[in-house]
Amino acid sequence: MPYKNVRRLPPLLASRRMTREQYDRVLPPLRDALLAAQKRLADEKPFALAVIVTGVPTAGRSEIVNQFLEWLDPKHVRVHALDVLRTASHARPVMWRYWNVLPPRGQISFFFMGWYADCVYPALRHRKQAQRHHARALERIRQLERMLPQDRVHLMKLHLTVGRELQQERIHKLRADKLTRWRVTREERWLARHYDDVMKVAQRCMLDTQQPQAQWHRIDGSDPQSRSFAAGQLLLEELERGFGPSTPAQEPEHRASRHPTKMRSFPTAPPGGPPADDEYDLELETLRGRFALLVRRNRFRKHGAVLAFEGMDAAGKGGCIRRLTSALDARQYTVVPVSAPSQEELSYPYLWRFWRHVPKRGEIAVFDRTWYGRVLVERVRGFTPEHDWRRAYDEINEFEHQLTEHGLIVCKFWLSVSKREQLERFHARDDDALKRYKRDPEDWKNRRLFDAYGQAAREMIGRTSTDLAPWTVVEADNKKFARLKVLRSVCEAIEAAMK
Amino acid sequence: MPYKNVRRLPPLLASRRMTREQYDRVLPPLRDALLAAQKRLADEKPFALAVIVTGVPTAGRSEIVNQFLEWLDPKHVRVHALDVLRTASHARPVMWRYWNVLPPRGQISFFFMGWYADCVYPALRHRKQAQRHHARALERIRQLERMLPQDRVHLMKLHLTVGRELQQERIHKLRADKLTRWRVTREERWLARHYDDVMKVAQRCMLDTQQPQAQWHRIDGSDPQSRSFAAGQLLLEELERGFGPSTPAQEPEHRASRHPTKMRSFPTAPPGGPPADDEYDLELETLRGRFALLVRRNRFRKHGAVLAFEGMDAAGKGGCIRRLTSALDARQYTVVPVSAPSQEELSYPYLWRFWRHVPKRGEIAVFDRTWYGRVLVERVRGFTPEHDWRRAYDEINEFEHQLTEHGLIVCKFWLSVSKREQLERFHARDDDALKRYKRDPEDWKNRRLFDAYGQAAREMIGRTSTDLAPWTVVEADNKKFARLKVLRSVCEAIEAAMK
User: Fold this and answer.
1) ipTM of this predicted complex?
2) For chain B: N or C, fewer Cβ within 10 A?
C-alpha cells in the first residue's frame, strides 16, 4: 500500500538556469566531494547505491549518466539498461534479472529506467490489457524498494522531465541534422507524440511508488548545467546520508501476522506405522515413475518447480532428495545445497543468493536447506537481529508469490524428526565410518536448541504456508515413510498445477 | 594436434565381476579415503576437479554420478548436465556455457557428457554436414583440456561402455515394466539402434582428445559393483595425484612463436599533426553517427563486438571509450573495467573472468584493460611465472579465435603514448583536483618500468595480431587524434565484417 502521507509529487529541482561560468565555479568542489564519498564507500563498504534514472526523451537521462561516469571512478560503478521484456513467456520471473545485477556493498549502479520499464511501457501501450498486471507490478516494486534499503542497498530515484515544447524543439533539432538524426529512436518519437499520456502514467507511477526510503526526485531537464549539478548534488547527499546514522527501520507491513500462531509440536511418527519393505520398494518405483512422466509432459515446460527442504539435522533431507532426483534427467534439475553464506553472498541483500538459483521454465531446483534459514538457524542462534528475521516472513512470502505467479510449482517440506530419533541417528553416524563427514560440532550445538528450533519452525510454517506455496510437514522418524510422502506430495502438487 | 604417443584406447577397467560381499568389504575404506581427500581439497583448495562422465546408454553413467553424490559431501560438489545446443544461432560462443560453470578451486564438479555432447551428437546425426565443424570442435576441446590443468582445474574423463547384447537386454527389461519404461528415452533408443556407429564415433573422439594431462579412462559398465568401485578408485587416485608434486608443465604448443618479434618502438605522435578543433568536432560527430547507424543495422544482430583497450597509464583509454559509448543505446553495451583480480576470480582459471563478459550476439562489450594483463602488467611486474604468461599468447589467440568464429567483431587498441607526454599528464592530474582519484602510487611504479612495458607490448602485438582479431596501434600523444582513429577503426572493422 502506498504511504498516504507522501502521496504528492516531489518538488521540481533545477528549474533555474545556470550559466557556464556559474557551473564551472560550483562544479569542482562538488566533483571533489563526490569522489571522496565514492572512495569512502568503496573502502568501507557500508552500503550499495542503486540509482534509477527515468524520465522523458530529450530530458537528459543518458547525459546525466554519462556525466556521472566521467565524474566517478569507473572501477566501482556499473551501468545497467535492461530492455523491456516484450514477451510474456520469458524464462524466469520478471524481477529475476534485476536481482541478478544488484550492486554489492561498496558499489554504485546506475539503472536506466530501473525496474520501471516493465511497468510503465505496457501501461502506456496496451492500457486495457495491462491494467490488471499493472497493480501487481507496482506492488512488486514497492516491496522490493522497501526491502532493499533495509538490506543496505540504498535507492535514489531520479525522474528527468522537460516541457512539451522544448521536447519537440530538441527532437526537431536533432532530426534536422543528419549527423544527429540517429539519436532519436522511433520509440522516443512515439513517446513524444503521446506526451500527455506519458506524463500522466509517469506521475501516477511516481506517486504509487513514493515511499519513505525510496523517494523520487524530479529534475527539470531544460538547462544542461543546472540539471547536471542538481543530479550531482543529490548523489552526494544520498552518499553522505548513507554514512550518517542509519534511519530507523520500517515496521514490517503486515503487523497482524506478528502474533505468534498457536500450534502443537509436529507429529514425527508415521501415521499407520512404517511401510513394509516390499510395499516400500513397489510404491517408491511407482511414484518415481509417476513423477518422471509428469515432468516430461509438454505442459510442465510452462511451469517448472522449486522444491524446498528444511528440517533438523539428520532429519533425512538428503535421502529424500536423492529419491526425487534419481527419477530425473540430469539436464532438468539442479540441487542447491545451502550452507552459511560466503563473503561474497554477504555483500548482497539476503534473498540474492536464492534468486540466483531460481530455475527456468520447465526446470527443477531442489534446495537442500533454503531461504528459511533466516527464520530458523539465524533466528535461533542469534546470527541476525530480531527486526531483520521478523521482516523476512513477508519478504519470503512475496518472493514465493513471484515464483508461483510466474508458473513455478513451489513445494516446501519440513522433515519432522523426534529428539530421540535424531540422537539415534547421530550415534549411528559415529559408528558408521562412512557418515563421519556428516558429523559436525555444530550439530550438537543445534541439538541443545532443539526445542527453540521446533518453536521457530512452527511459527515459520504458520506464517508462510500459503495456498500456492504450502508447507508439507513430513513425519520423518521413519525414513521410508518420509521419502514416499515427499514424492507423493510433489506428484500431487504438479498434477494440481497442470490440471 | 593429438599426441601420437598416446593414440590408443585406454585399457578397459572393471571388466571382472565383483560380488556384493566383496563390494561391501572393499567399499568402506574407499569411501573413507574419498571423504578425507575431498575434505582436504575443500580446506586447502590447491585445485579444482572436473569429472566428465560419458558413455553409452545403460552403461551406468547416472548411477555412477548418483553414487558419487552419495559418497561425497554435497556442499563441495556440483553436477552439470548441459543439453546439446540444437541451434546454430545460440547467443554466445559454444564454450561459453562451460566456462560459466567451471568449478572454483576446492570444488569437484561432475559434467554429464562434459563438453563432448556438442561434438559427438552432431557427428553422429548429420555426418556430412558436421564434418568440417567436427575437426574444429575437437581442437577447441584439446586446447581447453591443455589449459585447464595448468590453471589448476584437473580433469578426469570417464567413458562407460557396455556390450551390444547387454545393452539390448537392459533396454528391453526396463521397457517391459511400465514402472521403469520412462527410464529409456527416445534418444537412448536411437543411440542403441546405432550401436556400432556410436562406438566408432566415441572411440575416435577419445583417441583425438587423449592428451597427457587429460587422459580417458574406460570402464566396463556390465557389473554395477565393479564399475562403481573402479570409478571411486579412479576419483581417489586423481585427488591424491593432485595433492602430490605437480607434474612438469607442458610446453606451449607453437614453439615457433617463442622467438621474440623484432619491432621498433611504436609511434606516439599523430602522423600529419593533431586535428584542428573545428575539424575534430565535425569528424567526431560524423564518425559517431556512422558508428551509431552501423550497430543499429539488422545485420549487426548476427555479430556483436568486443572492443579491447590497452595502453600505458594516462594513455587516454577512458576518453576514447566514452566517445564510443556516447553513440550507443545504453541497452546495447557494457563497459568492463578490468583491474587486479578479486579473491573469487583468482580461484578460477585465468580467462574465466573475461569469458563471463563475452557479449551476446548484437551486443557490444568494451574492455577497459583486458586479458592481455597477463602478458603486460603480470609479466613486467613479475606477478605471474614466466611459463604461465608465455603460454597465455596461444590461449588468448584461441580465445579470440572462438569469439571471431562465432561472429563477434574483435578490435584491439594499443594507445601508444610517449614517456614525456605521460609525465605531463601525470603532473596535470596532480594539479587538477578533479582527476586526483586517478593518481595511484602504482602509476609511478609502472612508469619506472615504462621501457619494459613497451617491450612487452611489442612482443604481445607481434604474437597476437591475427587477421580476424588485429591490433591497432593508436598514436595517442594527441587525445583528439586518438579518439578519431579509434572510432574510425571500429567503424571500418564493422563494415568489413558485415559486407
Assistant:
1) 0.74
2) C
Give me the sheet containing B471-475, strands edge to edge: B333-337, B364-368, B305-311, B409-416, B471-475
B433 contacts A65? CB cut-off 8 A: no
- Smallest CA–CA separation between B498 and chain A, in Å? 19
- Candidates A66, A75, A82, A15; CA nearest to A42 is A75
Residues of B in contact with A40 (CB under 8 A): none
Residue B35: which of A83, A322, A436 has the nearest Cβ? A436
**Does the beta-carbon distance from A331 to B286 stay under 8 Å?**
no
> How far, in Å, CA of A272 to CA of A269, rounded?
9
For B87-106, letters b (16+ CB in 10 Å) and e give eeeeebbbbbbbbeebbbbb
What pLDDT is attached to residue A256? 43
- Rounded to 5 degrees, φ, ψ at A232 are -60, -45
Task: Quote the pLDDT of residue B1.
Answer: 44
Which among A400, A56, A54 is positioned nearest to A222, based on CA atoms? A56
Contact between A25 and A129 under an 8 Å Cβ cutoff? The reply is no
Tell me, what's the pLDDT at A440? 75
Chain A's closest residue to B81, CA to CA, is A331
**Cβ–Cβ gap A82/B339 under 8 Å:** no
Give Cα B29 to chain centroid, integer Å. Answer: 37
- Which positions in chain A touch B181 (Cβ < 8 Å)? 289
**Residue A471, C-beta contacts closer than 8 angstroms, at least 6 positions apart:** A412, A413, A414, A461, A464, A465
- The residue to which cell 506524463 is assigned: A199
pLDDT averaged over 10-residue windows placed end to end, chain B, 499 residues: 62 91 93 92 95 94 88 85 68 91 95 86 70 85 95 96 95 87 86 92 92 93 95 96 75 48 78 92 93 92 96 92 87 88 91 95 95 96 94 96 96 96 88 64 86 95 94 96 97 95
| CA separation for the pair A406, A420 (Å, rounded) | 41
Nearest to B62 among A32, A183, A330 (CB): A330
Q: Write the residue in B31, B330, B433 that is nearest to A62 by C-beta.
A: B330
- Subunit contact A289:B66, Cβ cutoff 8 A: no
Beta-strand relationship, B364-368 and A305-311? unpaired
* Cβ pair A74:B344 closer than 8 A: no
Give the residue among B424, B430, B420, B310 at the shortest CA–CA distance from B371: B310
Element (H, E) at B50: strand B48-55
The amino acid at B330:
A
Chain B residues whose beta carbon lies within 8 Å of the beta carbon of residue A293: 182
Q: A292: number of CA atoms within 13 Å, CB side?
A: 21
Give CA B321 to chain center in angstroms.
Answer: 25
Q: Write out pLDDT tens, residues A325-359.
A: 888 887 788 889 998 898 889 999 999 999 999 99
- Residue B77's DSSP bridge partners are B108
Return the pLDDT at A292: 92
* Inter-chain CB proximity A79 and B285 less than 8 Å: no
Q: Which residues contact B285 (CB under 8 A, 6 or more apart)?
A: A179, A180
Q: How far apart are CA A286 and CA A307, in angstroms?
A: 20
pTM: 0.84
pLDDT for A195 beyond 90: yes
Block residue for cell numbers 566533483: A31
Q: Does the pLDDT of residue A444 top 60, yes or no?
A: yes
Helix H or strand E encompassing A5:
none
What is the Cα–Cα distance from A297 to B325, expressed in whole angstroms?
46
Closest CA to B307 of B369, B366, B354, B360: B366
Contact status, residue A202 vs residue A159, Cβ threshold 8 Å: yes
Using an 8 Å Cβ cutoff, are A439 and A379 in contact?
no
Reading the block at residue A355, the C-alpha cell is: 534468486
C-alpha cell at B271: 602522423
Dihedrals φ, ψ of B2, to 5°? -65, 150
